[in-house]
Amino acid sequence: MLINLTGYEKVRQWISGVLVSTMLAASLIGATAASQAQEQEALPAGTGPKHAIAMHGDPKMPLGFNRFPFVSENAATGGEVNIAKANAFDSLNPYIVKGTAWWEVRQLTFESLMMRSPDEPFTLYGLLAATIETPEDRSWVEFRLNPHARFSDGTPVTVEDVVFSMELLREQGQPNLRRFYSKISRVETPGDGRVRFIFGPEGDREAPLLLGLMSVLSKAWYTENTFNETSLKPPLGSGPYIIEDVDPGRNLTFRRNPDYWARNLAVNRGRHNFDTIKLEYYRDENSKFEAFKKGLNSYRLEADPARWAKGYDFPGTRNALVLRDRFEHSRPSGMLGFAFNTRRGMFSDVRVREALILPFDFEWMNANFFFDVYARTQSYFDNSELSTTREISEREAQLLAPWRASVRDDIYQHGWRAPINGNRENARSNARNALLLLGQAGWHIRDGVLTNDVSGEIFAFEILLNSRSLEKVALNYATTLKRLGIEVDVRLVDTAQFQQRRQTYDFDMMPFRWNGTLSPGNEQAYRWGSHEADIDGTFNVAGAKDPAIDAMIREIVAARSREDLVAAAKALDRLLLSGFYAVPLYHQETDQIAWWGELQHPRTTPLQGWSYGFGLSNWWMSGTN
Predict the structure, then answer these.
(1) Where are the alpha helices (H) located in 311-423, listed in sequence order?
(2) Are the beta carbons of 376 and 586 closer than 8 angstroms?
(3) What are the CA-CA distances from residue 441 to residues 287, 340, 352, 575 (Å)?
(4) How far apart are CA 431 and CA 476, in angstroms?
(5) DSSP 518-539
(6) Which of 3, 29, 397, 624 has its C-alpha lying 20 to 30 A from 532's C-alpha?
(7) Rounded Cα–Cα distance for residues 26 and 20 (Å)
(8) From edge to edge, which strands make up the β-sheet containing 241-247?
């Protein structure tokens, strides 16, 4: 009997291979499982579930607190409040780059795992999540969902929704969201309503709090509805209000959800009191103010000192039907300025940018336009302990030591001192200094026009505006620059075009506000990080690319104490001021608010003031139940 040894050998080898492969696979699976188990075991121990978390130090409100101190025990529910908006909208999705969505959609209809208190620098209290746990090094964070949490259609908020939201925002959300959530290396769902996020090497001490502020979206709803396109379909959220009516581009009406799941939580007592909130679009500030005078709007945050001083003499105020007041706060001013686009060749030289700041005549404009109400902004954290208006500290000097060449000597010593104009002598001196700096950068006046020595290019640029509120300031500034041989075109465009050009950095100079915060962190990378300079839609409108700035942002997010954070923020401030990324304008140190008398506000103003977030959430209407 003959045997086909070749075939037999093939079968034997195949069987042997299968056995070896199976054993190898089993070995690998076991090794992977062991590795995962060891990795999980290697996670540092948590400090126990807590009701709140502060970026530095301890939360102000203890476990079991009844309500925040800035709300009223006597707040009534009911009534309608109308608020004017000066920009149109074409979307109800506040999480993507495409389109323009009013930020109140996020504030009123969606919720995050935790709520940020406006009465502290950076502290979160439980909302969708009942507790938070993280280890001392904050390398991971675990949330336990409130079992009562519900979307407005009555469906429960689940761990699956939380994980889905993070993944969706990380893949398709705005650049800052994608950046924040890219720090997550893996997600675990241990059960019992818990979800744990483990951070990779890019994680930092602020990361657990940023996860706490993540909006939670409904997986079921966004599976049926497209996320990454503009839409005017009211989204499904879990917040206190539901979008009831949409008049595209013109107004939105929010109705208080009578079945809101969290109305009795401590963080919500005395808040979300209006039955209806209506936002209406007006073309400019003048039409907004006229609507307010007629009682068509209930509330007005007044930014125009001239109008505050002389514009409120109308029947409503004379009859005490309209009230107004200045509310003090401890919120940093931030920086409102005419931002340079350093991606443009003429603005790429820091000497040019400094030169163009010198002639800005704040003193004349403050006296003639603003009744001397404004203070000149001289720091990105003005009006707070984070500003660099004082001598440099030892800790700041240590942080800046590797980057000493990036900080100008005078700014290193005592911060930036704004040039003083306001009279002919000062104006001439500043103009001379400006021309000297421009000359050093290769620009000289020829036949009355500032011209580049090499290319022969004429120095001309455009200031892009979308509101008349800054038009007279821009025109006055343009007139001043014309004396230096610089041609400036002040161009007013509609909101949609302004937004599109801002997001794609298609501008020379434009007004921009970098909002102030008492607890700077990862958002500074979104505003100033080198990586963000070439990504459409970020807040790095100036196009800053400086490794010293990147390093100081890392120091900010790594700070383990309030003292370290303050020093790092001041060091960053000195670097930004030395880069002259904007022509600093001005700020007020109080919130000027006018309202029709049926509106009521609590006696205590929170640390951040009423204009922080949606401050009206804490007000109410008199004569309601």
Answers:
(1) 315-318, 350-357, 362-369, 394-400, 409-414
(2) yes
(3) 44, 16, 7, 21
(4) 15
(5) SS--THHHHHH-TGGGGSTT-S
(6) 397
(7) 10
(8) 80-85, 276-281, 251-256, 241-247
Calculate what percentage of the chain has a pLDDT beyond 90: 84
Return the bridge partners of 568, or none: none
Strand partners, 239: none
Cross-strand bridge partners of residue 591: 327
Distance CA 561, CA 462 (A): 44
Residue found under tokens 């919720």: 111
With residue 345 as reference, give the H or E element that holds it.
none
Q: Is the pLDDT of residue 506 over 50?
A: yes
Q: 274: which residues sit within 8 A by CB, 6+ positions away? A: 77, 78, 79, 80, 81, 256, 616, 620, 621
How confident is the model at residue 5, as a pLDDT? 36
The CATH homologous superfamily for domain 336-586 is Dipeptide-binding Protein; Domain 3 (3.10.105.10)
Q: Which two tokens stand for residue 98?
A: 């495409």
Strands of 194-199's sheet in order across: 129-133, 140-145, 194-199, 184-191
Asked if the domains at 52-75+88-236 and 336-586 fall in one CATH topology, the answer is no
Which residues make beta-bridge pairs with 443? 452
Report in angstroms the alpha-carbon separations of 592 from 117, 148, 318, 336.
22, 39, 18, 17
Token pair 């060091």: residue: 571
Angstrom distance (rounded) from CA 573 to CA 552? 10
Helices (H) and strands (E) in the chain, counts: 19, 25
Q: Locate the domains of the chain by residue range.
A: 52-75+88-236, 336-586
Q: Work out the burial of residue 615: count CB atoms within 10 Å of its CB; fewer than 13 is exposed, 13-18 middle, 19 or more buried.
A: buried
Residue 529 near residue 553, CB atoms below 8 Å: yes
- Overall average pLDDT of the 382-387 stretch: 91
**Crossing angle between the packed helical segments 424-440 and 350-357, to the nearest 10 degrees:** 170
Q: Specify the DSSP class assigned to residue 61.
A: S
Task: Quickly name the fold that domain 52-75+88-236 has.
Answer: D-Maltodextrin-Binding Protein; domain 2 (3.40.190)
What is the model's pLDDT at position 6?
A: 37
> Tens of pLDDT along 268-279?
999 999 999 999
* pLDDT 10s digits, 526-558: 999 999 999 998 999 999 999 999 999 999 999
CA distance 555 to 264: 39
Please give the Cα distance from 621 to 625 (Å, whole number): 9
**432-475 residue pLDDT tens:** 999 999 999 999 999 999 999 999 999 999 999 998 889 999 99
In the block, tokens 């209930």 appear at 298
